[in-house]
Amino acid sequence: MKKLIAPVIIVVVILLLYFVVPKPLEFSPVTSTIILSLIGLALVAMLILTIAGKMIGRRTVFIFIAVALTLPFMMNFKMPIRITPEVQSLYDALEQLPAGSKVLAAYDFDPPSAPELQPMADAFMTYAFKKDLRVIIMGLWPQGPQQAQLSIEAALEDKEVAAKNLQYGVDYVNLGFQAGNEFVIQRMGSAFRGMFARDSKDTPYDDIPLLKGVENFSNIDFVMNFSAGKPGTQEWVQIAVDRFGVTLGAGNTAVQAPGMYPFLKGGQLVGLLGGMSGGAEFELVTGEPGKAAGFMLSQSCAHVVVIAFILIGNVAMLLARKKK
Amino acid sequence: MKREIPLIITFIAGTVFVVAYFVPHSPFNRAESLFNDWFAILAAFAIWLGALNLLKICALKVSRRSKDWYLGFVIIVGFFVTVAVGAYDGVVGLSNVPATAFRDPGTNFDWIYRNVYTPLSATMFAMLAFFVASASYRAFRARNFQATLLLLAGFLVMLGRVPVGDLITGFLPPAYQMSQWATWIMDFPQTAGQRAIMIGIALGIISTSLRVILGIERSRLEGE
Amino acid sequence: MYPLRSAALIVVLLVLTGLPLAAQSDIPIDSAVVDSATVDSVAPFPPLPPTNLEAVDVANDAGGALSLSWTLSPDDASLVTKYLILRSSGDGAPFAIIGETTQSQNNFTDNNAGENKDFYYRVVAHGEGDVDTLKLTSQANTSAVVGPTHSTAQWFHWGRLNVLIGLIAVCAAILAYINVAKSGKELYIRKIAGIEAVEDAIGRATEMGRKIFYIPGIMDMDDMQTIASIPILGRVAEIAARNETFLDVPVSRSLVMVTAREAVRDGYARAGRPDAFNEDQVHYLTDDQFGYAAAIDGMVVREKPATIFYMGAFFAESLILAETGNAAGAIQIAGTAMPSQLPFFVTACDYTLIGEELFAASAYLSREPKLLGSLKGQDFGKGLALLAIVLGIILELLDQAYDLGIGFLRILSIE
Fold it and tell me: Scanning every residue of chain C, which has its alpha carbon at the shortest distance from the alpha carbon of B208?
C-alpha cells in the first residue's frame, strides 16, 4: 500500500493542474524571470549543501530537470539562434532545386522520437510545399508514413501552402511503409515499383501522376531522411548515396547526430539537422520559427541545469579528495 | 550433414552478397534481391514464435500465481484487446466506401496507437533526459587531465549547441562566440574520433563476417 | 565423402535459386504513344530546342539503363517549363514520352532500356500552353534524334576496384594469421579489461545468490553485432552454469530468441549441466524498442540482478537500461559498436567493450587460435587504413602545393 502513495499523489496533482490551470498558459516576462532566478537560486543552494557535506541524490537531480524542462514551455523569451554550417548547407542545397523537382522524404522514426524529430519534419514539409517541390513520402519504419501524414497536416495549416491547393498524387504522394530495412533501399535502386507496387491509399504505382517517369533514384533530385535509429541515415548513406549516387540531407536525433559528422565531412551528406536545435535552426533559416524554436529556451535551461550538477558533482569530488 | 547444411547456406548467401557488390551482372544482382526477400519472409513469420513464447510465459506466471503474476495478466489482456480491436476495425473497414484499413486515422486501433502507445513510448524516450543528467552528475568528473579535457569539451558543446552559449559569450565578436567553438569541436576532434571508431568497427565486421562465411566461427550456428 | 556431398548440395541449391532468376521480366512499355493525329493548340512562341543530345550506357550497372544529357534550350530560363523525353525502338516505330525533367535540368536516366535493345531518343523543350500529345516529332522545339544506343550489363564494377583490393588484402591477412595461429605460434593480444572481468562479474552473482541478465541488443540476427553477441552469451552461459547461477536472457527478436537458446543450451552442456537448462530462460518480450526497455527496467528494479551484460546493437534505450541497472546496484559490462551509445555505456557501466572489442570478445573468451588469428588480421587492416590516410594526406598536400591536378583522393573514393 505504501508504494502506491507517491504515484497517487502525482496523478492527483497532475489532474488538478490539468483542470485548474487556464489554457493556454503563458507566464509574463516578470514571472518568467522570477521563476528562472528561483531555479538558479535553488542550484546555488544545492552547491552550498554539497560544500556542507551533504550528497545530493539522483531524485533531486530529476526534479530539477523536470522543472527546468517544463516551465520554460510557458515562457515567451526570444532566444538568438545561430545557424550552424550543416543546417545552412542543407538549406542551400534545397534552395538550388528548381520548382517541380522530385524530393523523396524518408520518414524513419516513430512516436517515441517524434517530439524531437516532428518539428523539423513539419518545417521541411512546409518549406518543400512552399517551394513547389514534389514530395514522395516513404518509410522504412512502420510508423514513419503516419508521422509524415502529421507533417502534411501541419504544412497544410500554413496559409501560403493552403492557397496552393495541393493535390494528392500530383504534388505529393505517400508510398507508405515497406518492410525489409536497408534492403528496401537497395531494391529501390533498381525499381521503386518493385518495393512500392501501390501507395498508402492502395492506388497502383503507375496510376499516380507524380510517379510518372520515376523509376529509381536517378529520377529523384533530392532525398531527405528523418531518422531515429536503424534503418536510418547511415543505411541511406551506405546504399542510396554510395551505391546509387543520390543527394542526401538528413535530420537526426541529437544522440545520433554526432555519428553522422564523418558522412557530412566526407560529402556524403549535404546537410544535417541535429536534434531539436537543428530543427530550430532550420525553422529559422526557412523563415518560419515554429515549435522547435519555441523549445530552445527549455533545452537551454536543461543544459544549464545539467552543467550545474556536473559542477556540483566535481565540487563534491574535490572536497572528498581534500579530506583524504 | 546436419552441421553442414547451415554452413553451406551461410557460405552461399554470404558469398553472393559480396560478389554482387562487385559484379553488377545477373544472376548475382537477382540472387541478392532474392535472398533479401527470403530474409524478410522468414523474419515476418518468426514474429509468431516470439509472441507465442511471451503469451506462454505470462500464462504460466498467472496460472502458478508466481511473484508479480498480475503483470503477466496485464500483458495478456493488452495483447488480446489490441489484436481484437485491430481485427474488428479491419473487418468493419472492408464495408466502408472506400475500404479503410485498421491503421487508418479515426479507427479504434488508431485511437489506441495515438493515446496509449504513443505517450507510453514517448515517456520512455523522455526518461533519457533525466538519466543523462543523473549519469553525468555521477560520472562526469575531472579525475585526471584527460577527464578534465573531456569535461571542458562537454561544457562547450552543451552550451554552444543551444542559444544560451552565445548569450554568455555575447561580448565577443560573432566569429569567436561559443557556438563557433562547439562547431569546431564537433567538426574536428569529434569527427576524427568517430572515424577512428568506425574504421575499427568496419574491420571487426569484416573479420567476423569472414569467420561466419567460412564457417570458422561456428558458435552462431551450433553453440561451438 | 564430405566434399562430394557438399558440392552436390551446392549445385542443387544453385539450380533452385537460379530458377526464378532465369525468368527475365520484360520491359514494360509505358506512357502515351504519341498519336500523330491529335493536333492541339500550339504555344504562340515555342521555345528553341535543346541541342547536343547524347545517350550513353550507364557504366558499372546490371544493364537496363541509358543516361541522356543535353545542352539546355537557349529559352530555358524564359519559355521552357519542362523537358519531355521521347523514345522509339526504331524501324518507324512512333516516339513515346517516357519521362520528363524540370526546367534547367539537362540529364535524364532511362531505366527501362532493357538489355542490348536499340533505342532512339529525342528531347522536347516544353513551353507554357503546350500539350503533351502534340505532333512532337515535327515540332520546332524538338532536338535531333540520337541513336541507336543500347544498354549492356557489366561483369565488374570498376569504380569499386579499390575496395576489392583492400578487401582482398585484409581477408588475406586474416586468413594468413589464422594459419599462423593454427601452427601453434603464440600470438600476443593485448588485454581487454571488460573481457577479463566477465568471470568475476558472474562470480559476484554467485556469491550474492542473485540472477544474471544478458541483453543481446535490440537488432535482429541480420545485424553483425547481434551475431557477435551470441558466442559471448554461450560463454557466459557456460560459466554461469558451472557456478550454478541463474541466467536470464530477455530478447526483442524472435530469431534472436531461437539462436540464443541454442547458444545457452550448448553453454550448459559444456559446463556438464545440460539438465539445468530451461528453454524459458531465453524469452521474448517485444520488438518495440521502448517497450523492451520498459520491460527490462521493470525486471531489473523488481529482481535486483547482481550482474547485467549488454552486448549487441543498442540505440536510445542504452542509457535508460544502464542507469536503471546502476541504480539497482548491479555490476554491468557493456559492449556495442554503436558509436553514439558508447558514451552512455562508458558512464553508466563498470566495463565497456568499445566497437571492435565486441567483435573480438568471442575470440578472447574462447582462446581458440583460429579466432585469435583473425584479430591479428584485423590489426593488419588497421595498419593499412593508417597508411592510406597518411599517404592520402601527403599526396593531396603535394597535389595542392604544386598544382599537379591529379586528385589523388579520387583513387581512394568509392563509386
Answer: C359
Domain span at B213 = 140-224
Task: Among B25, B49, B66, identify where a domain stops.
Answer: B66
C-alpha to C-alpha distance for A214 and C109, rounded to whole angstroms: 10
Residue C86 pairs in a beta bridge with: C97, C122
Considering only CB atoms, A65 lies closest to which of B122, B133, B154, namely B133
The string of pLDDT tens digits covering residues C262-285 is 999 999 999 999 999 999 999 999
**Total-model pTM:** 0.85
- Which candidate from C14, C170, C347 shows the least CB-CB separation from B203? C170
In DSSP terms, C33 is beta-bridged to: C96
With a CB cutoff of 8 Å and minimum separation 6, the contacts of C368 are none
Q: Is A307 exposed, middle or buried (0-12, 13-18, 19+ CB in 10 A)?
A: buried
Domain-wise residue ranges, chain C = 51-149, 187-367
Segment C279-288, tens digit of pLDDT: 999 999 999 9
Q: Which residue of C has its CA nearest to A252?
A: C340
CATH of the domain spanning C187-367, picked from 1.10.10, 1.20.120, 3.40.50, 1.10.3470? 3.40.50
C16-34: b (≥16 Cβ within 10 Å) or e: ebeeeeeeeeeeeeebeeb
DSSP H helical segments within chain A, as ranges? 2-20, 29-51, 58-70, 85-95, 114-130, 144-156, 159-163, 182-190, 192-195, 233-235, 261-265, 275-285, 291-323
Prediction ipTM score: 0.89
The model's confidence at residue A21, banded by pLDDT at 50, 70 and 90, is confident
B79, part of any domain: no
Give chain C positions within 8 Å (CB) of A229. Answer: 289, 315-316
Shared domain for A72 and A89, answered yes or no, is no
Q: How confident is the model at residue A266 (pLDDT cuts 50, 70, 90)?
A: confident
B157 and B183 in contact (C-beta within 8 Å)? no
What residue in A sits closest to B199 (Cα-Cα)? A262
Strand order from edge to edge, sheet including C282-284: C282-284, C247-251, C212-215, C307-311, C331-336, C351-354
Least confident of A291-295, B33-37, C155-159, C313-317: B33-37
Q: Taking every pair of C-alpha atoms in chain A, what is the biggest distance, in angstroms?
A: 78
